[in-house]
Amino acid sequence: MILTRVGLLCSAAVVVLIAGCAAPGGNASSAGAAPKLPDRLVIRWQRLVDNEGDTCNRCGDTESSLDGACRVLARALKPLDIRVELVTTRLTFEQFKRDPSESNRIWIGDATLDEILGAKAGDSPCCGACGDSNCRTLIVDGRTYETIPSQLIVRAGLRVAADLVQPPAPPGECCPAGGAPAKADGLNLQPMPWLSR
User: Fold this and answer.
1) DSSP secondary structure string, 131-195?
2) What is the DSSP code (8-state) at residue 103?
3) CA separation for the pair 50, 72 (Å, rounded)
4) Residue 75 phi/psi, 5° resolution?
5) pLDDT tens digit at each of 197 positions of the chain
6) Residue 9 region, left (φ>0) first, then alpha (ψ -120 to 50), else beta?
7) Measured between alpha carbons, how far is 172 from 25 in angstroms, rounded to an integer?
8) Minimal CA–CA distance to 67: which of 134, 188, 150?
9) What are phi and psi of 121, to 5 degrees?
10) Which of 7, 84, 142, 162 has the fewest CB atoms nearer than 10 Å to its CB?
């Protein structure tokens, strides 16, 4: 249910991404030809996998979140011909012991999920493959997550995709002085508060 709602919201976001600055005087209409879009959005995730091939519950649940988020992002970005590529990296127990905060980390493009969402990393006791170590948590908007939910991954993915699709316009070319988007092809492009939740 939640992923379906997120999928519908992503479709609306794609309309906004495609419309971009298509208003008269904006970059898309004044530049002549449409710019070539990037062909993929790379999401990289690393987590501890022990010698038996096991991981902890929080990393296992994050893997399920990533699978769902990648499906939603792939559907949302398909009209822009952007593929979503998930790359997973295994940390050995030795690497994990040196720095447990490296486990259950996500990058989208060149930025960490923490950077994209303005989040902070924390830690809390874990179990399973992690032994008695404290493992990484993510603190977003005052809430602490041990498992990274798909909604946060989708939100970050859309932000990165928006930057890939449309570089910032020089001041005055696209948007009014207040920073609010212009109307494009009859669409009233308003800020989308669901992206900041």
Assistant:
1) TT-EEEEEEETTEEESSPPHHHHHHHHHHHHHHHH-PPPPTTTSS-TT-PPPPBTTB-----GGG
2) T
3) 30
4) -65, -40
5) 444 444 444 444 444 444 443 333 344 434 445 555 568 999 999 998 877 887 878 888 899 999 999 999 999 999 988 999 999 999 888 888 888 888 889 999 999 999 999 999 988 878 776 667 878 899 999 999 999 999 999 999 999 998 887 655 666 655 555 555 544 444 444 444 444 44
6) alpha
7) 9
8) 150
9) -90, 140
10) 142
Phi-psi region of 84 (alpha: psi -120 to 50; beta: other; left: phi over 0): beta
pTM over 0.90: no
Q: Give dist(CA 140, CA 174) in Å, integer.
A: 31
Residue keyed to tokens 């602490």: 144
Other CB atoms closer than 10 Å to residue 191's CB: what's the count?
10
Amino acid present at 164: L
The SS3 assignment for 61 reads helix
Cα distance between residue 189 and residue 88, in whole Å: 36
* Residue carrying the six token digits 């022990």: 50
CB 71 within 8 A of CB 134: no
User: 184 CB contacts (<8 Å, ≥6 apart)?
Assistant: 19, 20, 21, 22, 23, 26
Distance CA 65, CA 43 (A): 13
